[in-house]
Specification:
The chain is α+β, with helices and mostly antiparallel strands. The strands form two sheets. It has a three-stranded antiparallel sheet, with no helix packed on it. Strands 1-3 form a two-stranded antiparallel sheet.
Length: 109
């Protein structure tokens, strides 16, 4: 009887200690924040190039190359393009920037 009680206590003690030790949480400082993303904008066409293109984004040149990406800043811009000398389309677009995320564990960037 004493033997089974001792074995039960030993098993119970091992179970309790392993539960306590496995539930410990260590908080580790994160590394420095990552760099912010860059903002790019480009203009392209599907079947035929537009007759002309305009927008109020100062980083886009007056006569942009279609399919080329231009570095710009985040913001909201207006655009307008002519599909032929008589018909045009206009609209607004918004550009976003992805901000850097917190670094990894143990101070890794």
């Amino acid at each position: 009887m004493k033997n089974s009680t001792t074995i039960f206590r030993s098993i119970f003690l091992v179970a309790v200690l392993s539960t306590i030790l496995s539930s410990c949480i260590t908080i580790i400082d994160q590394g420095p924040r990552g760099n912010d993303g860059k903002v790019y904008y480009g203009i392209d066409y599907d079947s035929s190039p537009p007759y002309s293109y305009w927008d109020n984004n100062s980083n886009i040149p007056n006569n942009p190359y279609f399919g080329e990406m231009y570095r710009t800043e985040r913001g909201t811009y207006d655009f307008e393009y002519f599909v032929n000398p008589y018909e045009y389309w206009y609209g607004t677009y918004r550009l976003y920037k992805n901000y850097g995320e917190p670094g990894g564990n143990y101070g890794e960037p």
